[in-house]
Amino acid sequence: MKMKRSEKLGMFTGLVVGVLLLLISVFMIFQTTCKVWGAEKPANATQQGIDVSSHQGKIDWEQVKNSALADYAIIRCGYGVNQTDKDDKYWDYNSSECERLGIPYGTYLYSGADTTAKAKSEAEHVVRLLQGKNLTYPIYYDMEADMLNQLSSTQIGNIAKTFLNTMESYGYKNVAVYSNKYLFETKLTATVFSDYPKWIAQHSNKCTYQGSYHMWQYSTQGVIPGISEKVDLNYKIGNWTYAGYSPAKKPVVAKPKATTIKSLKKSGKKAVKITYKKVSGVSGYQIYMSTKKKSGYKKIATLSSKKSSYTKGKLKKGKKYYFKVRTMKKVSGKYRYSSFSKVRSIKR
Length: 348
What we know:
There is one protein chain. By secondary structure, the protein is α/β, with parallel strands linked by helices. The protein has 2 domains: 31-237, TIM Barrel (Alpha-Beta Barrel), CATH 3.20.20.80; 261-347, Immunoglobulins (Immunoglobulin-like, Sandwich). Helices cover 25% and strands 29% of the residues. It has helices spanning 5-36, 61-67, 91-101, 116-130, 153-169, 181-186, and strands at 45-52, 72-79, 105-110, 139-142, 175-180, 198-201, 215-222, 231-237, 261-267, 271-276, 284-290, 298-304, 309-312, 320-331, 334-337, 344-347. An 8-stranded mixed β-barrel has the order 1-2-3-4-5-6-7-8. Strands 11, 12, 14, 15 and 16 form a 5-stranded antiparallel β-sheet that branches. The longest helix is centred in the N-terminal third of the chain and has 32 residues, at 5-36. It is elongated, with a radius of gyration of 34 Å.
């Protein structure tokens, strides 16, 4: 049966519309993909990730995970010196959600330091916020503030060194530095920046930085399900794996060597002279006294390392007194104490 011309036209129109809808669908899928993998993927890129802060608002991390568009996240914990009003308000939520869902994550702190004192405080800021967290990616020091252009390369290097050394003094070994290509080439040139991994920002189709780097932030215009705002996109370069931190065990500081009481002798009508053995390398001595052998001791004197005896007065005739002595040594601003000497007694 022959088809009418109008029927043929209708079929043709339907076919054209169908093809157009298919092309639009393909384009939308391609466009969404390009928003994530929008740059020229380096041959040695192994994963893609995002970095977020409170600027992205409250994130639905389950949607992020289900999208399979982010293999990891670098989350801002805060900015500037160690004050609670400079904590990122979504840090605890974001990090807790990543841990709950098994999303690998690291952190960064946006620096505003123009002195080493501020850099030390910024490190302490990070340490405070990392308590109880289980990072699987590095801790980054974000050095990109405009005021860096007013500082010399040496000053910037000292600031970075202070932050990084302070972090390591707390046992956080997996630290790195974030900045843009221009600053890495012109300002962040001190030798310290060669000692740590670099996360480099160059929002372009290709990273042209000639130095070494282990992560490249290539865009600020990513679109990821679960995140209402545009998000930064990154490539992880290489197969490196780091834990977020590995707190060092507290160093065991040896006690100073103990002393011994050499003699107790009556002195005058109401006093006793305590003579003890001098010990080299200590900062001083402390003498304790009681009227009971096993309890009730109170410190009666703190003496310099130059002293080797002490006379305790105002004692009661016919009463028995017990004495013990210990040495002390100042280490890193804190005193360490030896065990006490063997108790000696005398009746006044």
